[in-house]
UniProtKB/TrEMBL annotation:
It holds the Pfam family Spore_GerQ. It comes from Psychrobacillus insolitus. This is Spore germination protein Q. InterPro entries: Spore_coat_GerQ.
């Protein structure tokens, strides 16, 4: 298959030589010392503090109803992209991590590296 490129004010031209073979990409190897730091990811820290009461601060772009929300509640579960929070009245929230700004706790948190 021949590909042509158009240039302003010119005629179609065929590229000189396109590389047909590309080296396959291999993922870089991550040293074991760095892999051990994965516990510092926010979802893992939240999992280590499951059941604790915290105040969660969220902000949302382009939301006409509200652009920020504060939820005070208990951590029920945390995944890579979400967190489940239950407030003291029992209402449960499934919130996306991309909207989470920060969390405050009134007690010491578990943080083991």
């Amino acid at each position: 298959m021949v590909q042509y490129y158009w240039y302003p004010g010119g005629y179609p031209q065929q590229p000189q030589q396109m590389q047909q073979q590309q080296q396959p990409m291999t993922p870089p190897q991550i040293p074991a010392a760095i892999r051990g730091q994965e516990e510092s990811y926010i979802e893992n820290i939240l999992r280590m503090n499951k059941g604790k009461l915290g105040t969660f601060y969220f902000t949302f772009e382009n939301n006409k109803e509200w652009n920020a929300k504060v939820i005070k509640g208990f951590i029920e579960a945390a995944g890579r992209d979400h967190i489940i929070i239950s407030d003291p009245s029992g209402k449960r929230y499934l919130m996306l991590m991309i909207y989470l700004d920060y969390v405050t706790f009134d007690e010491e948190i578990n943080y083991n590296l």
